[in-house]
Amino acid sequence: MNHIASSFASSDGIVYRSHLWELRDGGYRRMALVLGFPFWPLGRDTRLLAFLLDRGFLVHSIELGFASPEKPRADLAALRRAATAFADSLAARGLPLYLIAQSFNAALVPAFQRRKELAAAALVSPVLDYPPPGTKMPRCIFGAAAETMIPRESLSGKPELLDELMGPEAYVAKFSKRDLKALHSESPATLAPELGAPVAVFAGEEDPLVSAPIREALSSGGAKIYSYPRVRHLPPFDRYADNYYADLGSFLDEVEAAARRTKG
User: Fold this and answer.
1) Residue 114 has what pLDDT?
2) CA proximity to 180, closest of 152, 148, 142
3) What are the φ/ψ torsions at residue 217 (nearest 5 degrees)?
4) What value does the mean pLDDT of the chain take?
5) Do residues 152 and 238 touch, judged by C-beta distance below 8 A?
6) Quick check: 191 and 128 in contact, CB under 8 A?
7) Which of 112, 82, 87, 81 is nearest to 31 (CA)?
8) What is the spatial distance between Cα 192 and Cα 198, in angstroms, rounded to a whole number?
9) Alpha carbon distance 202, 32 (integer Å)
10) How far apart are CA 262 and CA 258, in angstroms?
11) pLDDT single digits (tens) 54-98
């Protein structure tokens, strides 16, 4: 596969790193915009990249840094504008766009409402309950960020699968208090209807960051739910990873089949 890294400047002047993965022989039918897990760079997830490329996707990603261990570079509203501006830059290709938003990056998905090129959205372990469990709010009102510590054992029931992806230490996600307040006011039940495209949710039943009420709210809004027993926050890196990929493939195939019927 070819990998091309470049820079993308948003309208507010902040420059983000963007990525494209493609096969050398071309023949693309669709695009994937992957807003990946924050715990490692998307380029390390070789199974997901191979899975999408083999299915005829051009794979795009942009490093926005939401829930990064570093102090947030921009507020949630600015990150959402950057995400949709990046999607605008892809629309010129004229290919249907599939959004894959993982973990905390699901907070960026509401920005993609009613985009005509959006074919579907796959939400993998979407964190939509804010503040997340265990968040410590800063005592100082100036410049400090709220922090959520995520132990490695919360990520996978088979943590040895993470050895090549991340270190042994806990991940610390950071948020501004203003962003937490804005996210707390949003309803997961409205997410799928507002996108105006098929939505599927893939989540472990023992995920400490995706509660049963969140899954139920997404389902009530029309999202299709795929759940995995005894799996924690990372279905692609837990005991039923093969089942997860089979379900993701089935969802993508169903969306494409429905699109063909509509055109026919």
Assistant:
1) 85
2) 148
3) -65, -40
4) 93
5) no
6) yes
7) 87
8) 7
9) 17
10) 6
11) 999 999 999 999 999 987 779 999 999 999 999 999 988 889 999
| Type of residue found at 232 | R
Instruction: Specify the amino acid at residue 195.
Output: L
Which residues, including other chains, have CB under 8 Å from residue 1's CB and lie 6 or more apart? 21, 22, 23, 24, 49, 50, 53
pLDDT band for position 111 (cuts 50, 70, 90): very high
Q: Kindly state the helix (H) or strand (E) to which residue 31 belongs, with its residue range.
A: strand 30-35
Per-residue pLDDT tens for 207-247?
A: 999 999 999 999 999 999 999 999 999 999 999 999 999 99
Q: Which residue in this structure is represented by tokens 């005509």?
A: 116
Asked if 79 and 66 count as a contact pair (C-beta separation under 8 A), the reply is: yes
Q: Report the run of H or E that residue 115 belongs to, with start and end.
A: none
pTM of the predicted model as reported, rounded to 2 decimal places: 0.94
Return the H-helix or E-strand segment holding 187.
none
* Amino acid identity for residue 205 in this structure: E
